[in-house]
Amino acid sequence: MTSVRRWSLVLAGTALLVALPGIVAALPAPARHVPATVLLRRIQHSAGVAYSGYAESDGGLALPVTSQFGNIADLFGGHRQLRAWWRSEFDWRVDSIGFTGETDTHATDSGSWNWNYEANTATFTQYTGTPRVRLPTDADLLPPRLAQRLLSEATAAEAVGLGSRRIAGIAAAGLRIRPRDPVSTVDHLDVWAEPRTGLPLSVSVYGKGSGTSALTSKFLDVAVASPARDRTEFQVPAGATVQAVSQPDLATTIDRIGGGMPPARLAGIARNPQLPALGSVGIYGRAVTEFVAVPLPWRLAYSLRSELDPNDTYSGPGSDKVGQLTLSAGPVNLLLSSFDDPAGPWLLVGTVTQQTLVRAARELTGQAGSR
User: Fold this and answer.
1) Which of 224, 245, 266 is the last residue of a domain?
2) Can you tell me whether residue 203 is helix, strand or coil?
3) Domain assignment present for 353
4) 294 in Cβ contact with 254 (< 8 Å)
5) pLDDT of residue 77
């Protein structure tokens, strides 16, 4: 065999190996009919399923925030590579590679370790009770966590089966949820799950009026089995700086010490009954149609406004412009209420129409009292 012939075979073999994952994914999945209601129930009860795998998430939500909520903008507006070993709710590891580098998170029953690869810093955060509200993290973008959260309150009437599709080599069963709430800005979300356990393997969220996904998370490789214990344990890397913190994130802090309590209903939408009522942050709606009402400290509100619209100047009482600011990013709408009212400012964010947020802001700022 000539040298050229040998290299031709090598190149052909290499090309086949590179193309193999795509070929496998394109193969038709065997028909595995699972009724939509059954699959929905399995997904909703899949939190205890152990797994390990590699997933990627892509967000099209260009949220215009940088400092206080910068990580959220990165999570939902960019590309994330996620490697996960999930044994249970308090025993898992997620490695995340994003725009700013790599971070590894190891969860235990007493707290979590966060290792920043670039800074070579290991930080232990002690649990101080389960927060009622918190900011999202990289682990929340894993297909199981994302789907379990978005489908937690979905109803059988909103579910339609999609047949089968091969995801990460698994013949996954598909489910489409189309919100029935008229004020929702989400058109539908598609979830593909392992049929037997209901473990979500792929999630895509579509806003109304858009043919492209606003947020997608998908396994490229997955094993539906409990990973070895040593894969989730954390060992402090040699030479790493070690620190310990106990303070909650910004959302949890505001919820606990913000003062006051939002009403039971806003804009005709009830406060989510699955969360404890005591807290300063209000969460209204259900499933994929929700919005939050956050009472902002004045200094944080001024800073956030300057980031949201750096070219704008605040207009005080008596001016034509009342100071209210609205923005949109795909199906996510945001409203920062006027600073003129003593009951404000409020930050409202969610997957409901801007008209709904405007109505909610009017009701909030019309309340008596101040912070």
Assistant:
1) 245
2) strand
3) yes
4) yes
5) 52
